[in-house]
């Protein structure tokens, strides 16, 4: 199975839900997903003050592309802050995070298998 076919729609019609892990200020709005693989396109929201340290450093078995739509996030491991307009392309196994967002952040993410 693959992601569903969808024509343009208002993204604000898709609710934000808690992300997996132990951080209740990190939410996502899943715009399209393949239920068999979990591969998804989503918006992720870091509420102001979010710290994902309880989730630790992240790695995935899939490709992940992330575009920061608004706000900023700081990679605590790298001690580097990334801001709106910046983009990341992470191959499977690439370590990233944990993150902190003092003022909040909204990202657009696409995950897929090679």
Task: Describe the structure concisely for a colleague.
With 114 residues, this protein is mainly β.
Shape: globular
Separation of the first and last Cα atoms: 16 Å
| Relative helix content | under 10%
Strand and helix order: EEEEEEEEE
The CATH topology assignment is Jelly Rolls
What is the assembly state of the chains in this entry?
single chain
Low-confidence regions: none
Tell me the number of structural domains.
1
How much of the sequence is in beta strands?
35-45%
Largest sheet: 9 strands, antiparallel
Number of strands: 9
Radius of gyration: 14 Å
Describe what this molecule looks like in 3D.
With 114 residues, this protein is an all-beta fold. It contains no helices and 9 strands. Strands 1, 2, 3, 4, 5, 6, 7, 8 and 9 form a 9-stranded antiparallel sheet that branches.
Q: What key attributes describe this structure?
A:
mainly beta, 9-stranded antiparallel beta sheet, Jelly Rolls, 114 residues, single chain
Topology:
Elements (H helix, E strand, L loop, with lengths): L16 E2 L7 E8 L6 E7 L3 E2 L11 E13 L4 E4 L3 E4 L8 E3 L3 E8 L2
Antiparallel strand pairs: 1-2, 2-3, 3-9, 4-8, 5-6, 5-7, 5-8, 5-9
């Amino acid at each position: 199975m693959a992601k569903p076919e969808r024509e343009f729609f208002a993204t604000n019609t898709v609710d934000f839900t808690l992300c997996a892990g132990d951080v209740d200020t990190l939410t996502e709005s899943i715009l399209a997903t393949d239920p068999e693989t979990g591969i998804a396109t989503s918006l992720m929201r870091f509420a102001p003050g979010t710290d994902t340290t309880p989730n630790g450093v992240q790695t995935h078995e899939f490709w992940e592309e992330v575009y920061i739509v608004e706000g900023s996030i700081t990679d605590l491991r790298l001690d580097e802050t990334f801001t709106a307009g910046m983009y990341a392309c992470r191959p499977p196994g690439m370590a990233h995070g944990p993150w902190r967002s003092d003022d909040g952040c909204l990202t657009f993410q696409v995950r897929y298998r090679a």
